[in-house]
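Hi Y.,

Following your request, here is the sequence exactly as I used it, all 294 residues.
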Amino acid sequence: MDFAAWMATVQARTETALGRFLPAAATAPGRLHDGMRYAALGGGKRVRPLLCHAAGEVLGAEAERLDVAACAVEMIHAYSLVHDDLPCMDDDVLRRGKPTCHVEFDEATALLVGDALQTLAFQVLAEQAVADPARQLAMLSLLARASGSRGMAGGQAIDLASIGHPLDEAALRDMHRRKTGALLQASVLMGAATGHADDRALNALSDYGAALGLAFQIVDDILDLTQATDKLGKTAGKDLDANKPTYVTVLGMHEARRQAEVLRDQALAALARSGLDDGARLAWLADLVVERES
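Below is the corresponding structure, written out as tokens. Let me know if you'd prefer a different format.
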């Protein structure tokens, strides 16, 4: 299967699995469940599920088990987008080419949608058989750390606190490793934990995910200034308008692009030392992250 066909297959599997795990809109409370489905279904590149499947497949994981891990990560991602878009955060009205959750519903519903998606992610991961009990518990811990105060939520807190304040490159890197990188790295490691990996492979995949996660955010910073709103599916230029420090404002466009390329090289080097027989899809995903235009 070529890369584009494989991507489409994983994206379709993720959509189907999410639809199965999410409560039906007809189930009370209907408005909340409708909002959860609105936020999680029908859009997005599904980069995190793609990373989860790619890492798991090369380590012999079953597709049905990878669906569970991928959906848990994607629910966390979807909840973070709903909360990020709220007026008290980034105050945006467009996400994935459609009105944000609080615009389509209301702020209180959007807040609860994010809360419910977060908790459902852990419920699904706890209740479905994806690995032996010890590894499944480790996966729950991994997802919690990646999304909590030392990961994604902590990165968002730093991001909000930095508005109007200069950050040096080290501080910016730390913020982005938490806010965006932690969950992307966790996506790789969740897939790996669903399969059969030795310490050598796990350490290399951890390094791969860390480099790719930071590269993803650098490219996001670049696209925010170089692409139009209709191309991005979200409001372009928001970070600059909000006076937020980004890789482009701190380092300049040329150096930001160079940093993304360096991080891709680091990710590919990590794959090379992983001992995996076929990391082609993970390598393709590294290219996709750095070369994407939306």
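The chain has one domain: 3-291.

Thanks again,
Q.
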